[in-house]
């Protein structure tokens, strides 16, 4: 019999004695919290109960340590975007692709130069070249900024990609070479969010509803994640451009893929390109764009400007979400109240990005239940709004339990 099985058998025998249940549990608690106990024999009412022998203690210590390590590893894995089933969890500066059992350091200049590439896609903004290549039979994307272009632009983009690694809400960085101004990221077969509709058409209606709602939640979660890190994406002035900046993972979830320009909210002004969709631009945009606290040491200036800039992103939410809900009148009706609050003209009264995600989450829970919600939103861990949702769920359970106990 395996040691941990013997441990559980011994513990079970101990618990059959109704006089020593509390002491058994206390002993297990001490083991779990790290106390290295020795042989303990409990005598209650002339009844001897061998609580934990040395062998049982050793087995329990090992089993509990393994369980704790696995739990911590799973939590770290969730936060870094991987899962224990298909790839290891990597630290900053490392990557792992599907099927890889160990993490490895980002590819360096020499390793990137050895990759055979083919042209893939059109240059973005007229400067970035994109190539498709393979690394150990895995497709990856190599992006290059010509060396005669502004190196500040490359360093800014690279800094953003590195800064957000590892993160389950953004594409995975594979390699970097500052000399040739290029970096590599993971390749995603489903393409960008503009392809979401054609992929959803192959699903059943119930599956389509869930997937479309998750896409809207992901968009809000990614923007909220950036806001909590003091950044926003100012380069989302058209619907097509916005959708092209998000890739679809294998399970059809959104991943931020274009991080070339991330403005520091409350400091840098919000710019507007000549080409833009009017319904994406909030009424107060021009006023907010004229403000800047870059040369100001006044913290209240930064705070006030940041509060107004994040509301510009909230205004975009309904248009982007509706684009991912084609012909889905059921979901549009359920989300109508949330979207109406995103379009309030007065930015002070307009919904916050956190409340948008909370609102979407409540709709999801009402449709699919709390367990399904917790399973599908593990990638949001670390976002403050997700913590609020978990608190709401736990509070709801306590209220239900209190009612049932009456």
TrEMBL record:
Which keywords does UniProt give here?
A: ATP-binding, Kinase, Membrane, Nucleotide-binding, Transferase, Transmembrane, Transmembrane helix
Keyword Magnesium in the entry? The reply is: no
Provide the topology term for how it sits in the membrane. Answer: Single-pass membrane protein
Question: Where this protein primarily resides, as one coarse class?
Answer: membrane
Compartments, record wording: Endomembrane system
Tree of life domain: Eukaryota
Name the UniProt record assigns to this protein: Protein O-mannose kinase-like
Q: Which organism is it from?
A: Priapulus caudatus
Gene name tied to this protein: LOC106813760
């Amino acid at each position: 019999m395996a040691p941990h099985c013997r441990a559980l058998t011994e513990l079970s025998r101990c618990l059959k004695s109704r006089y020593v249940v509390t002491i058994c549990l206390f002993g297990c608690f001490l083991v779990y919290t790290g106390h290295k106990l020795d042989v303990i024999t409990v005598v209650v009412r002339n009844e001897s109960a061998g609580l934990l022998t040395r062998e049982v203690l050793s087995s329990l210590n090992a089993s509990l340590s393994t369980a704790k390590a696995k739990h911590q590893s799973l939590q770290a894995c969730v936060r870094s975007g991987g899962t224990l089933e298909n790839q290891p969890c990597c630290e900053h500066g490392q990557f792992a692709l599907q099927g890889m059992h160990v993490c490895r350091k980002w590819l360096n200049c020499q390793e990137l130069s050895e990759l055979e590439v083919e042209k893939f896609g059109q240059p973005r903004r007229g400067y970035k070249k994109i190539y498709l290549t393979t690394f150990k039979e895995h497709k990856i994307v190599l992006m290059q900024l010509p060396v005669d272009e502004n190196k500040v632009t490359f360093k800014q983009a690279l800094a953003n990609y590195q800064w957000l690694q590892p993160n389950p809400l953004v594409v995975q960085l594979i390699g970097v070479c500052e000399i040739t101004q290029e970096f590599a990221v993971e390749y995603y077969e489903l393409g960008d969010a503009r392809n979401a509709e054609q992929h959803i058409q192959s699903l059943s209606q119930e599956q389509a509803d869930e997937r479309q709602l998750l896409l809207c939640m992901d968009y809000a979660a990614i923007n909220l994640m950036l806001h909590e890190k003091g950044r926003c994406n100012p380069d989302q002035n058209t619907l097509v451009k916005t959708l092209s900046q998000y890739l679809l993972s294998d399970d059809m979830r959104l991943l931020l893929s274009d991080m070339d320009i991330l403005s520091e909210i409350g400091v840098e002004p919000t710019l507007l390109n000549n080409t833009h969709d009017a319904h994406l631009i909030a009424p107060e945009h021009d006023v907010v764009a004229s403000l800047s606290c870059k040369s100001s040491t006044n913290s209240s200036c930064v705070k006030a400007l940041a509060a107004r800039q994040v509301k510009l992103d909230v205004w975009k939410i309904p248009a982007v979400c509706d684009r991912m809900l084609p012909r889905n009148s059921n979901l549009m009706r359920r989300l109508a109240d949330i979207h109406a609050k995103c379009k309030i003209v007065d930015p002070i009264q307009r919904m916050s990005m956190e409340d948008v995600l909370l609102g979407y989450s409540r709709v999801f829970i009402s449709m699919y239940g709390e367990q399904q919600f917790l399973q599908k939103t593990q990638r949001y861990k670390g976002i403050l709004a997700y913590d609020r949702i978990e608190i709401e769920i736990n509070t709801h359970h306590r209220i239900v339990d209190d009612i049932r106990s009456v």
